Amino acid sequence: MHKIYPIIDKDFLKKNNFHIMVHFLIKNNINMVQIRVSKPYTYKLLKKILLVKKICKKNNCKFIINNDLLIAKFLNADGVHIGQNDSSLLMAKKILGSNKIIGVSCGNNMRTASIYSNPSVKYISFGSAFKTKTKKNTKVLKISNVYDYKLDSETETCIIGGINANNLSDKILNKFDLIAMSSAIRNIPDIIKINNLYKKFCNE
């Protein structure tokens, strides 16, 4: 099933109504969210992250931590997302346990995707779908390459990078299991737009 995959960053958590937006996201067909913040983890920041976790747990939504295995362990997250230059898959399994969700970034590298295509990995993330201000020096993904990869793999695929209500298309929704979004879900009107597009796709 194709799902929107919200990436909650510091800019999201800075908003006074961030907890309301998390509730709103989860009530609109979201079953997994990722926390992507960088160190240092202040008390105030951890308190906000724990509130997101509490909301997720109450609503049966998976709570994923980006990159930081120790924080994922400390918070007893449902899983972790690791990048190409982050913690290894074996280390993630060793620290968190084999029952946790593990997602891996592969960028445009289909060879890396093939290496990580195994039962230990829940999803593989590809990108960037579009040019984005969130990450510098990103290469735009050739989506047809991922389609060819999916023919030989049962691992779920995720697309990330610059996706918003203006460029979310049937082409993207048809070819990927998860559609990750960050800057596009930082206010409720944008979330409503995304949700309406998603509902329209599901009803077609």
Describe the structure.
- The protein is α/β, with parallel strands linked by helices.
- 39% of the residues lie in helices and 20% in strands.
- The protein has a single domain, classed as Alpha-Beta Barrel (TIM Barrel).
- An eight-stranded parallel beta barrel has the order 1-2-3-4-5-6-7-8.
- The longest helix has 16 residues.
- The model has no long low-confidence stretch (mean pLDDT 88).
What CATH calls the topology is TIM Barrel
What is the averaged pLDDT score? 88
Indicate the radius of gyration in whole angstroms: 16 Å
Strand-residue fraction? 15-25%
What's the layout of helices and strands?
Blueprint: E1 3-8, H1 10-13, H2 18-26, E2 32-35, H3 43-58, E3 62-66, H4 69-74, E4 79-82, H5 89-96, E5 101-107, H6 110-116, E6 123-127, H7 143-150, E7 156-160, H8 170-175, E8 178-181, H9 188-203
Parallel strand pairs: 1-2, 1-8, 2-3, 3-4, 4-5, 5-6, 6-7, 7-8
Helix pairs in contact: 2-3
List its traits.
204 residues, alpha/beta, TIM Barrel
